[in-house]
Amino acid sequence: MRRTFFIWMSLLVLAVIVSVAGTKYYLRASMRERVIISTTSSLYDTGLLNAIETRFEAEHLIDLNFISVGTGIAIQHAQRGDADIILVHSPTDELRFLTGGTGVNRKIFAYNFFTIVGPETDPAQIRNSTPFQALSKIVESGRNGTAKWVSRGDNSGTHAKEKSLWTDAGFDWKILAKESWYINVGSAMGETLKKGDYFSAYTLADLGTYLKYYNDGLISLKVLVEQQKDLLNVYSAIAVNQTLHPRVNFDGAITLMKFLISNEGQQIIEQYGKDEYGQSLFYPAVQLLKENSDPTIAQWIRDYAFFNGSECPPEYRKGYPELYN
Amino acid sequence: MTTALGNEIVDGLLKALQLIFSGNPTVVEISLRSILISGLATILAFMWGLPVATILGLRKFRGRFLLKGFFNAMLGIPTVALGLILYLFFSNTGPIGFLRLLYDPVGMIIGEAILVTPITVSFTTNAIESVDPEIKDLAKTLGASETEASIAVLKESINGVVLAVTASFNRAIAELGVALMVGGNIAGLTSVLTTVIALETNKGNIELSIALAIILFLIVFALTISMNMIQRRRT
Question: Is the complex ipTM more than 0.90?
Answer without folding.
Answer: no
